Amino acid sequence: MESGAFQYQSEALKLHFWDFVFHMLDAFSRAVVSADSKGSPIGSEDLVALRKYVADANKRIDATLAITQNVSCIAADAISGMVCENTGLTQPGGHCYPTRRMAACLRDGEIILRYVSYALLAGDSSVLDDRCINGLKETYLALGVPLANAIRAIEIMKIATVAIMTETNSGRKMFEGLNSGSGAECQDIASEAASYFDRVIAALS
Amino acid sequence: MKSAVTTVIASADAAGRFPTISDIESVKGSFDRAHARLEAAEKLAVSIDRLTSQALDHVYGTHSYEQANKDKCARDINHYLRLLNYCLVTGGTGPLDEWGIAGMREVIRAQQLPTIAYIESFTFIRDNLDIPGDMSQQAAAEFKSLLDYLIHALA
User: Fold this and answer.
1) Residue A66, class by beta-carbon neighbours within 10 Å (0-12 exposed, 13-18 middle, 19+ buried)?
2) SS3 B119
3) What is the pLDDT of residue A58?
4) Fold of the B34-154 domain
5) What is the percent of chain A with per-residue pLDDT over 90, rounded to a whole number?
6) Which residue of chain A comes nearest to B18, CA vs CA?
7) Considering the entire predicted model, what is its pTM?
8) Vertex A71: Cα angle to A163 and A194 (nearest 5)
9) Range(s) of chain B covered by CATH 1.10.490.20
């Protein structure tokens, strides 16, 4: 992960901001777009999945909080883990040397985490696909970012995020007294979050 | 597609920040209203053909519009009701704005359509909704506010 990776991306996004707004879907508008292609209204059968989404709203909110309240912890641990497994990265000539490039790495980790948190809140991967994944591999290749290391960092973020959501992490447990009751209740939503990290990994592979 | 959730995410993304507590609160607010919305959508989907033909009969019963255009009128009323069904599902006016209202004035002017007929149809549906026969009070409130939005856009 190298400096500038997302700056170019975000400039492009500003130019096409309104195009992108219409491509962004959530679980509800995804159902609308698919019903519209058939020209039929949304009836009982299609509403089953959406009612489940509404019923699980508290878990979804807690899971999103699990990310937003632990951003720097998740991202920093992932980048440190990546470097520890590959100490050459911070040596002169390594991709995370000097600190300017290491900082870019941390920033990219947080950006990916941010788009995963949006996708999780929306219950749909379109925002992640359009605004983060689209062109990410090409950008990294052009900037000489080693993809294998980037993928490893995302894997560690995925593991940490799932651990916090399901309260299987070793530190502070975050769900006591919150909406959904306990981390054990958040298994499904944690798998959904993991699937969004997997999309980023698949795109970079 | 604009909905309660995507609006929040688009503005968070424009500022480059994670969803804040207030973002999440506003998403939660739309979930709290979702029960009534989804009920309205479900009931509307079931009765869409009946509501269309009732409105059509009312309009053609009180005015002398060309009988030749009757099926086209029915198609349009059905189309708008379907978009209202989508709006009830998304919790925002996105589907109606993007697929029903954008460019509507131009089309109506070019085809010289009598907008008053549409307005009367939707007003008829709004005022003759059977509560609780068609849908519950809360569901009807969601549906009626969207009908008002559409009537206002047509006027």
Assistant:
1) buried
2) helix
3) 87
4) Globin-like (1.10.490)
5) 65
6) A114
7) 0.84
8) 40
9) 34-154
Q: Do A22 and B86 touch (CB under 8 A)?
A: no
The chain B residue lying nearest A114, using CA atoms, is B18
* Chain B interface includes A90 (CB < 8 A): no
Residue B120 has pLDDT above 80, yes or no: yes
Question: With a CB-CB cutoff of 8 Å, which residues 1-60 of chain A face chain B?
Answer: 10, 17, 21-22, 24-26, 28-29, 31-33, 35-36, 39-44, 47, 50-51, 54, 57
pLDDT at position B91, please?
87
Number of residues that this document lists for chain B: 155
Q: How far is A94 from chain B (nearest CA, A)?
A: 29
Q: Which residues of chain A have pLDDT under 70?
A: 1-22, 176-181
As given in the structure block, the two tokens for residue B35 are: 């029960």
Task: Return the structure tokens found at A74.
Answer: 């998740």
Cα–Cα distance measured from residue A62 to residue A67, given in angstroms and rounded to the nearest whole number: 9
HSE at residue B53, side-chain half, CA atoms within 13 A, is: 3
Identity (one letter) of the amino acid at A53?
Y
- pLDDT over 90 (residue B63): no
Nearest to B90 among A10, A32, A117 (CB): A32
Q: Which fold has domain A56-204?
A: Globin-like (1.10.490)
Helix (H) or strand (E) holding A188: helix A187-204
Shortest distance between the Cα of B64 and any Cα of chain A, in A, equals 30
- Identify the residue among A42, A47, A48 best suited for mutation to test binding to B, counting B beta carbons within 10 A and taking the highest: A42
